[in-house]
Write a structure and sequence with these properties.
Blueprint lengths: L2 E4 L12 H9 L4 E8 L5 E3 L20 H5 L17 E2 H10 L5 E6 L9 H9 L7 E6 L2 H10 L4 E5 L4 H9 L3 E5 L2 H6 L1 H6 L12 H10 L3 E4 L2 H12 L1
Parallel strand pairs: 1-2, 1-9, 2-5, 5-6, 6-7, 7-8
Antiparallel strand pairs: 2-3, 3-4
Helix pairs in contact: 1-3, 9-10
Bound molecules: SN-glycerol-3-phosphate and magnesium ion.
Pfam family, one: GDPD
Protein name: Glycerophosphoryl diester phosphodiesterase
């Protein structure tokens, strides 16, 4: 079965990587929820996609140059729709609390966003939070940055680690050779251009970002292990139709 993985939460219907988007992903029955983590200037793990706050808030500047207090003053919802103006950037802990409150039992895919800037010790900070207790859901780590996964493997040998790539053939091959890489998260374009390899690749493949009906159907026909989508509710409709 192709897992439905809510990309940045239900980011097609709610402001990406925010509590409303994650709550909606849980409500929609996503099998997996993906989020992106960065480190603030004062070393707090926060959930946002970009290195800068500009695109998804009313603020300016880089996450690594802002304190959590400064980040918490920003409006992370209005850019998407006015009714989300009270929405803030969340810490990872706040998202974990929401998932606990909502009794989420799926998978949490934490993307370590170190491909443009490698926050020193972000892996250790992340692992400390995730290993601080048992969770009623499963969690996986992924990254575009193989070095982050290598560091994470040293810290948390049992953790599931997936390598993200756009179309890099070198990464597709590296993932095959490195034992601690469980699977690959390539772009959907890579899947379309490498159909033969998709059928024979021995590790799980979970493409992003799959938003159109036709693309969802193709992923399910190819029986890829998962698909990241901004529209988990829609993906559920497609999957139940295919099952019938
Ligand atoms: O993990 C899949 C996907 O999230 C990778 O791309 O840029 O949306 O984080 P991006
Ligand atoms: Mg991501």
């Amino acid at each position: 079965m192709t897992l439905i993985m809510a990309h940045r939460g239900s980011s097609g219907t709610h402001p990406e990587n925010t509590l409303p988007a994650f709550a909606e992903a849980v409500r929609a029955g996503a099998d997996c929820i993906e989020l992106d983590v960065h480190l603030t200037k004062d070393k707090h793990l926060v959930v946002i996609h970009d290195e800068s706050v500009e695109r998804t808030t009313n603020g300016k500047g880089l996450v690594r140059e802002l304190t959590l207090e400064e980040i918490k003053k920003l409006d992370a919802g209005s850019w998407f729709a006015k009714k989300y103006q009270a929405t803030k950037i969340s810490t990872l802990q706040e998202v974990l609390n929401l998932l606990l409150q909502m009794q989420y039992r799926g998978i949490l895919n934490i993307e370590i966003k170190t491909d443009k800037y490698h926050y020193p010790n972000i892996e250790a900070a992340l692992s400390e939070v995730m290993q601080s207790r048992d969770w009623p859901f499963t969690y996986w780590y992924s990254s575009f940055n193989l070095e982050s996964l290598r560091i994470m493997h040293e810290i948390e040998a049992e953790a599931q680690l997936d390598l993200i790539l756009k179309k890099s053939r070198a990464k597709v091959e590296a993932a095959l050779e490195i034992d601690f890489i469980e699977g690959i998260h390539p772009s959907y374009e890579w899947v379309q251009e490498n159909l033969a390899m998709v059928g024979s690749y021995p590790k799980p493949i979970r493409p992003w970002t799959v938003n159109l009906y036709q693309s969802m159907i193709e992923c399910m026909d190819l029986n890829v292990d998962g698909m990241f989508t901004d529209f988990p509710e829609k993906a559920h409709r497609v999957r139940s139709r295919i099952k019938r």
